Amino acid sequence: MATAKALKNEKVRKILDKNDELVNKTVDKSQELTEKALERNRDIWLAGLGAFSKAREESGELFNKLVESGEKFEDRYKSFVDESSDSALKTVTTLLDKIPNPSEKIEDVFDSRVAKTLKRLGVVPTVNALQTLSQQVENLTELIEEYVDTTPEKKPVVKKKVVKRKPATKKVAAKKTTAKKTRAKKVAA
Questions:
Q1: How far is CA 20 from CA 11, 60, 120, in A?
Q2: First and final C-alpha spacing in the chain
Q3: With contact defined as beta carbons under 8 Å apart, do 125 and 133 qualify?
Q4: In Å, how far from its chain's centre is CA 40?
Q5: Cβ neighbours of residue 136 under 8 Å, at least 6 residues apart?
Q6: pLDDT digits (tens, 9 = 90+) for 107-136
Q7: Distance from C-alpha of 90 to C-alpha of 112, rounded to nearest angstrom
Q8: Cα dihedral sign, 140-143-148-151
Q9: Left (φ > 0), alpha (ψ -120 to 50) or beta: where does 154 sit?
């Protein structure tokens, strides 16, 4: 039995040794790759800085070249773009003209529903009621004009000096509303 245990321990020991070897190789490789990546990143950084400085130096020349090529392009394609935009605009306007205006339809529906509701509630006067009211207004206007024409012209009122008096302790006001009501009824008739 001792030999079986020893054989098992030897096998386990070999496996553990291989694992240690693989781990060490992996760590070495990762360190090597990390160092290479850092060097590569530095090269990329330096290349970016070089491109930036080069672009800065040549930006004036490059800008002028870009303007020249843009002018050539504009001359070549301006008429084409103008024609295309005009035809597209015409197409869009004809399509928009064919589409009914939704706000007009909404207004019509709203107006008709409000009118129906007011009619049900009895709020909207009928044509006959409006004509009757119009006739009454005309009659009242004629009566007022006759009254103004028949009254004698009054002399201008001269203001007198008002003397301040102490108010009476109890005053009973006379009611004049009945006379006004009867006069209003006569005028309305």
A1: 14, 61, 97
A2: 139
A3: yes
A4: 52
A5: 188
A6: 778 788 888 887 787 776 667 777 888 999
A7: 36
A8: negative
A9: beta
The model's pLDDT over 154-187, given as tens digits with 9 standing for 90+, comes to 555 555 555 555 555 554 454 555 545 555 455 5
pTM, two decimals, is: 0.24
Taking residue 24's Cβ as centre, other Cβ atoms within 10 Å add up to 10
Model confidence band, residue 7 (pLDDT cutoffs 50, 70, 90)? low
Q: Is the dihedral of CA 77, 80, 83, 85 positive or negative?
A: negative
Q: Do residues 188 and 143 touch, judged by C-beta distance below 8 A? A: no
The string of DSSP letters for 137-181 reads HHHHHHHHHHHHHHSPPPPPPPPPPPPP-PPPS---PPP-HHHHH
